[in-house]
């Protein structure tokens, strides 16, 4: 049976589509955005996270680790790279200081988790498949969307847009709503902040607007990365030009990702960006409004 | 009162003595009419002053000194008052108060369990109360009631009814009580006329003349307009809480529905405007807030440390035919609640499947402000609960909620609360072979040592046996207490207001009401569920530790066992996460206590029922309960209502609702679920819409009640650090709202610790 790998199933999500939703985070992403707030979703393989503040120094992880790489509140020298994420230490840790990001589930298993909140989906809510990048697990995503449709659930797919167009076109008719991220309009800057070109992302968006009539654009606002007037004006112009964009959300950067990076014991991309001010967010919203695009701030 | 009793005791039957005592108060008590007031009448000689009720419970000199000096919820007590107590009151009442007589009558095993903190007892210092007015006080004046009383007396047949004389005494007492309340109102009329004569401000003079006119009209006769309707209720309220010190005062019930005809008529004939109606309602609200609960003595001061006297107004709900009961006055009242946000009266909304989204949204916009009220009830469940208890559908629809979350048939039921019951303590006792480890006393039966349980089910059976044992002690005690109240402490005025006391010729406290239910308030189901789930998982499923070893660790309060405690806290199944492993145990505990209590006969001809609510007793119960297997340390508060253990819910509010929804709420007389939400979740129209979806979803699961604390943990920490700047911060504490800075540090910490559900 086909399985998918997810790193979180978040109930009571209020900002990933309409109503009360359960958001499923797929593991693995082709982009590597510097500000990523779900860094545990980047790699496709499972990873062990350590919440240092919970550690009680009991050493259970060290005793349990079959590879001999675990150390109290982390790993020994080179242990992080040698860790196979077998999760033995996670099971041994009494304080839940060690956690595993990434578990494999079947379509019926995940559907059973999702329908638990069905009574709260009334009046517009449902399920959102996010990530990571859900399109990376195309067959599983298709299976989930079909299963949710049969179960009568409202569905949304939150995508970076970086996937073969034919994959997106297979998904589009199966989902009620597409949440589509647009980070930077300038190709060079996009590459430098996400590691990839945005050419496919933007052309895929154009193509999708012709086949899907419910697309929400989601624009992270990251100070120093994409919050400058030039980028925002270009983004507003794009939103204004495309039909089927039902909503544009400006999502202020927040620092939860930095905390999660510490849990991954990874400091490679840790940045010191401050969240945008409310005033700046309002200013940006006004810029969109000037070209006839209504935005919501957050969600 | 002491003087009155000294002179009169033994010369009258108990109901007539009580009615005369009430009349004595109505005739003699200092009355008050404040500047600018439109609704008049106080319980004491001035606002915020409360009487004591020595016939129920007599404070010692030490009690009075503590009340005067304690840092939280203190009551100023004049030296003169202390002297009077020492010289007159205490010597007379010692051994004669209801409290003394009840304690003397209760058996030894009751006292042992009570002192161990297995349960509390409401009636040890306040009378059965907590009931609610229905429409009849607007339809019928007390003079009309006296005609009903006379008619009932006329039908008594001494030849065939051996109780005829007793009934006649009851009815005569009711008649005297009506006179007393009318005299009290007329004294206010006289005072208003005197003040009007001296008043220089012409506007105020007209107001005072109008007040005099209103006080001559009500409660003797049925009110004719909006102003008279409010004053009629208020005099009835004062009479009920003056006659006896009933738990949770008295409440106006479906005020919006009762006032609607007066409101519409006033607007139609031009005698009322929405602004004037609002002003009158605000004057009315202030009267409630002027009335702190009379101070308590002994253990209950700790178990319920609050000034609040729990009047509760119902908004919305259902009409007799099942249609949506919300109306223009409901919206007007929401505006008043929003503007004044006073501690009292508390308010709630009754939401049915048929309630308009507009009314719910309006109410939730008020909830969002973070006052802690109105609390939110499922009107359909409230009706279903009452129908299950055998009430007619119409009576159930006219009923609603009072106190914290308790369900009753307004104007037709004596629904008595008996006391909180510590479910978590029972687990501790079970793990110690029936012994309370705090004192070493054998309190319960010997149900087996920890190493004697081969399976979890064996252990659970022992828990069930202990639970049933202590519930029987509790119930046996209440039979005694109710009998004493029925015989010695009738409430003739309240009996006039509650059907069918007049027709039956029987007192409210003696089973005269149409419906009579007696409730035990269960506390700590979250703690006991998590304790059982952790035991089952760690001892029986995973076999990490034997039960005897675990009990030893608990006895040491986890000393030198932090890794095990961490595992119990973090790595075991918890109620509140929509996790069937834990939730199924919650249901088993609930089913056990329900079976042990529901349907047992009471002295008043009714039945025992269960409720799931704590007020603040979970703090007291926690303080007398040792470490529990869910990793909770000794002395920490147990869980409150049906809320999860503080911080144990990790899957967000929908999972909490799902877990709570697995209990069959329809079998209870009310459940209390507390949920703290960060304000950021509720921004904009979408935030209100999502809150409405949460509420509707929970009510689809037959959930009874939820109250939202909309406040950030940071705000609470700031208030704790600097109380003087945050005196106005109101939080919802397990069923009622209170000023945060008035709460004990433990309770403050608990509110802060309660998971602040963040949105993602």
Walk me through this protein's architecture:
The complex is a heterodimer of chains A (299) and B (760). Chain A is built from twelve helices and 13 strands. Chain A is α/β, with parallel strands linked by helices. In chain A, the strands form three sheets. Chain A has a nine-stranded mixed sheet with strand order 7-1-2-8-9-10-11-12-13. Chain A has a two-stranded antiparallel ribbon with strand order 3-6. In chain A, a hairpin with a 2-residue loop joins strand 4 (70-71) and strand 5. In chain A, helix 4 (107-114) crosses helix 6 (138-150). Chain A is globular. With 760 residues, chain B is of the alpha/beta class. Chain B is 50% helix and 9% strand. Chain B is built from 31 helices and 16 strands. In chain B, the strands form six sheets. In chain B, strands 3-4-5-14-13 form a five-stranded mixed sheet. In chain B, helix 2 (14-28) runs parallel beside helix 9 (164-198), helix 5 (98-105) crosses helix 20 (456-488) and helix 12 packs across helix 15. The radius of gyration of chain B is 26 Å and the shape is globular. The mean pLDDT of chain B is 92. Chains A and B meet through strand 1 of A and helix 25, helix 28 and helix 29 of B.
């Amino acid at each position: 049976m086909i399985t998918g790998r997810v790193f979180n199933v978040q109930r009571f999500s209020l900002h990933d589509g309409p109503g009360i939703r359960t958001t499923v985070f797929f593991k693995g992403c082709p982009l590597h955005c510097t500000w990523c707030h779900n860094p545990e979703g980047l790699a496709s393989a499972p990873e062990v996270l350590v919440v240092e503040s919970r550690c009680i120094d009991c050493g259970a992880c060290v005793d349990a680790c079959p590879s001999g790489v675990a150390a109290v509140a982390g790993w020994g020298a080179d242990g992080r790279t040698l860790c196979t994420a077998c999760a033995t230490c996670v099971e041994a840790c009494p304080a839940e200081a060690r956690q595993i990001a990434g578990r494999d589930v079947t379509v019926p298993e995940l559907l059973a988790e999702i329908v638990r909140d069905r009574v709260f989906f009334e009046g517009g809510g449902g399920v959102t498949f996010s990530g990571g990048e859900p399109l990376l697990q195309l067959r599983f995503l298709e299976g989930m969307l079909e299963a949710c449709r049969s179960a009568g659930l409202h569905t949304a797919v939150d995508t970076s847009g970086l996937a073969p167009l034919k994959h997106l076109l297979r998904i589009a008719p199966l989902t009620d709503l597409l949440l589509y991220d647009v980070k930077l309009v300038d190709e060079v800057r996009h590459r430098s902040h996400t590691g990839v070109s945005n050419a496919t992302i933007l052309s895929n968006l154009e193509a999708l607007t012709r086949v899907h009539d419910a697309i929400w654009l989601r624009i992270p606002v990251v100070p120093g990365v994409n919050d400058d007037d030039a980028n925002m004006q270009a983004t507003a112009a794009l939103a204004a030009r495309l039909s089927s964009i039902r909503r544009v959300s400006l999502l202020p950067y927040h620092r939860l990702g930095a905390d999660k990076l510490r849990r991954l014991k990874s400091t490679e991309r840790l940045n010191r960006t401050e969240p945008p001010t409310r005033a700046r967010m309002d200013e940006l919203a006004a810029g969109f409004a000037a070209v006839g695009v209504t935005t919501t701030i957050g969600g | 009162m002491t003087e009155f009793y000294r002179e009169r005791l033994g010369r009258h039957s108990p109901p007539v003595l009580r009615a005369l005592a009430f009349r004595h108060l109505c005739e003699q008590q200092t009355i008050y009419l404040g500047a600018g007031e439109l609704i008049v009448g106080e319980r004491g000689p001035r606002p915020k002053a409360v009487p004591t009720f020595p016939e129920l419970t007599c404070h010692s000199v030490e009690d009075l000194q503590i009340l005067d000096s304690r840092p939280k919820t203190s009551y100023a007590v004049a030296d003169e008052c202390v002297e009077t107590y020492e010289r007159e009151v205490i010597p007379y009442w010692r051994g004669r108060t209801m409290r003394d007589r009840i304690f003397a009558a209760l058996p030894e095993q009751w006292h042992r369990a009570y002192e161990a903190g297995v349960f509390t007892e409401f009636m040890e210092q306040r009378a059965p109360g907590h009931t609610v007015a229905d429409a009849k006080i607007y339809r019928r004046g007390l003079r009309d009631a006296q005609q009903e009383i006379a008619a009932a007396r006329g039908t008594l047949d001494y030849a065939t009814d051996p109780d005829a004389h007793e009934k006649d005494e009851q009815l005569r007492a009711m008649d005297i009580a009506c006179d007393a309340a009318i005299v009290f109102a007329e004294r206010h009329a006289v005072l208003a006329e005197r003040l009007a004569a001296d008043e220089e401000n012409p506007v105020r003079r007209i107001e005072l003349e109008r007040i005099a006119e209103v006080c001559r009209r009500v409660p003797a006769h049925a009110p004719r307009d909006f102003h008279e309707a409010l004053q009629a209720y208020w005099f009835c309220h004062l009479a009920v809480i003056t006659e006896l010190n009933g738990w949770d005062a008295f409440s106006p019930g479906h005020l919006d529905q009762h006032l609607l005809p007066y409101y519409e008529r006033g607007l139609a004939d031009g005698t009322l405007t929405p602004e004037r109606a609002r002003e009158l309602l605000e004057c009315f609200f202030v009267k409630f807030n002027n009335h702190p609960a009379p101070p308590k003595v002994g253990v209950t001061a700790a178990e319920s440390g609050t000034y609040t006297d729990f009047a509760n107004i119902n908004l919305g709900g259902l009409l007799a035919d099942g249609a949506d009961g919300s109306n223009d006055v409901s919206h007007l009242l929401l505006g008043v609640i929003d503007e004044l946000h006073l501690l009292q009266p508390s308010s709630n909304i009754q939401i049915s499947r048929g309630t308009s989204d507009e009314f719910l949204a309006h109410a939730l916009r008020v909830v969002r402000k973070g006052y802690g009220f109105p609390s939110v009830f499922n009107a359909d469940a409230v009706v279903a609960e009452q129908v299950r208890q055998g009430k007619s559908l119409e009576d159930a629809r006219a009923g609603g909620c009072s106190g914290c979350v308790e369900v009753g048939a307004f104007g037709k039921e004596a629904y008595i609360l008996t006391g909180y019951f510590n479910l978590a303590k029972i687990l501790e006792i079970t793990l110690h072979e029936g012994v309370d480890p705090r004192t070493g006393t054998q309190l319960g039966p010997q149900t087996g040592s920890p190493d004697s349980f081969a399976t979890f089910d064996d252990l659970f059976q022992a828990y069930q046996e202990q639970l049933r044992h202590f519930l029987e002690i509790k119930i046996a005690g209440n039979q005694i207490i109710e009998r004493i109240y029925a015989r010695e402490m009738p409430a003739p005025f309240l009996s006039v207001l509650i059907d069918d006391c007049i027709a039956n010729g029987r007192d409210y406290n003696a089973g005269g009401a149409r419906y009579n239910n007696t409730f035990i308030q269960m506390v700590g189901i979250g703690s006991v569920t998590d304790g059982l789930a952790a035991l089952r998982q760690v001892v029986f499923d995973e076999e990490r530790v034997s039960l005897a070893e675990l009990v030893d660790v608990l006895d040491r309060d986890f000393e030198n066992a932090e890794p095990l405690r961490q595992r119990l806290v973090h790595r075991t199944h918890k109620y509140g996460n929509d996790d069937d492993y834990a939730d199924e145990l919650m249901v088993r505990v609930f089913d056990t206590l329900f079976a042990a209590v529901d349907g047992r006969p009471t002295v008043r001809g009714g039945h025992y029922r269960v409720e799931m609510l704590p007020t603040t007793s979970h703090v007291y119960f926690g303080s007398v309960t040792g470490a529990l297997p869910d990793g909770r340390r000794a002395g920490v508060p147990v869980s409150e209502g049906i809320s999860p253990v503080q911080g144990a819910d990790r899957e967000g509010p929908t999972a909490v609702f799902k877990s709570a929804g697995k209990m069959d709420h329809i079998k209870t007389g009310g459940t209390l679920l507390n949920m703290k939400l960060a304000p950021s979740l509720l921004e904009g129209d979408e935030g209100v819409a999502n809150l409405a979806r949460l509420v509707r979803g929970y009510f689809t699961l037959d959930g009874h009640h939820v109250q939202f604390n909309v406040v950030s943990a940071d705000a609470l920490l700031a208030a704790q650090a600097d109380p003087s700047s945050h005196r106005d911060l109101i939080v919802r504490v397990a069923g009622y709202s209170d000023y945060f800075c008035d709460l004990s540090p433990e309770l403050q910490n608990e509110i802060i610790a309660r998971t602040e559900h963040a949105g993602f």
